[in-house]
Structure formats: C-alpha cells, structure tokens
Amino acid sequence: MPALRFVAVIVACVFVAAPHAQESLADAARRKSFDQILDLYVRNGDVYYRALKSDRGKLDGFVNLIATASVDKRPPDEQVAFWLNAYNALVLRTVVDHYPIAGHAADYPQKCVTRAQCVQLDRDSGKMTVSSIFSWHEKEFADTYGDKAPASVSNRSPIERAAVAFVFPKLLSAERDMVEKNTFQVAYKPFDWTLNDLTGRGGR
Question: Is the pTM of this model over 0.70?
C-alpha cells in the first residue's frame, strides 16, 4: 500500500507540532489537542496503542479538526509541519482501527520519531547511518532540507545534505564537529516494519 508506506516515511522523521506566532484559535486548539495525545500515549517513538484505542476521542477529534484546516497560504515549513502531524494522526488512527495487530505488518510500519532512529553517528568509525526512508523519498527530503545543510557539506549529494540538515540542530557539539569535518561515510540501514507497540511493556 504505497500511501501508507509514504506515511511511514515522512512521518518517520519526527512528530512535529510547530507553533506559529500568529496562529488562529483553531490552529492553537488543533496543536494542543495533538500535543496532549503525544504526551499521553507516545514514548520515544513507541505507542500505547491499547490505551489509545480505549480513549480515542482526542485522536478522532484531532483528525476531524485537521479536515477543516486551510494551509495553502502558510510558509512552506509550517505546511510541512502540518502535513507531518496529519499523517501521524492518520497512521495512529489506522492502527487503532485495526488493533490488535499480531506479528509483522507492512501496512503499519514503525514511525522513526527520534533522532537516534533516523540518523546515527559513530565518531569512532566516521560513519553516519541513515534510515532508508531518506533514500525511498529522496526528492521530497532533498527539496525540503537540502538547502538547509551547513556549508561544510555543500559538496555532498542532495539527499546526504538533507539528512545532515534534518539531524544537525539536534546534534551534540562533538557530533557537529564530526559532520563539519565532512569526512564521514554514509550508509543506509534496513527499515524496521515491526509495529511500535508499547502495550505490555509500559504497564498499560
């Protein structure tokens, strides 16, 4: 199912809730609603699906709210943040609609929502390991993040610059130094299609 695969890909980057200085009351309500869902049911990229299913009112309400939103006139970064949130919410609701899901299911892939899941840096080996989601949708990531990378990696390919730009703000000082030396190698890691279910692991 390509649509769900793309959802997993772009959502995988991060759960985003980008505030805006002049956001409307409706926008603020939407953002607060989704923030509450994430605070209650998401831990380090894993989800308490059973608990979310039993208390799905906020999630269904958020999905209904985003259906009425207009984002065409917003700046590009805010549009990206909005659609990431929308995709995240729809993926969560799709899983909840079919939960419990046994075993591996390609229709419901794990959302790479933390920096460690998306990009890993190993200073000892000089390697940057990147989630394969970047290579699957190279154009989307390159168009969104490619021009935001540090000048020190300007000779890298568009997708490598995009991966660096995506993760750079969250890096530690030593990791930034490694990136800016521009001697690292890039490798893509296999995608984990296992459902990221915390049920039974976190006391719920």
Answer: no
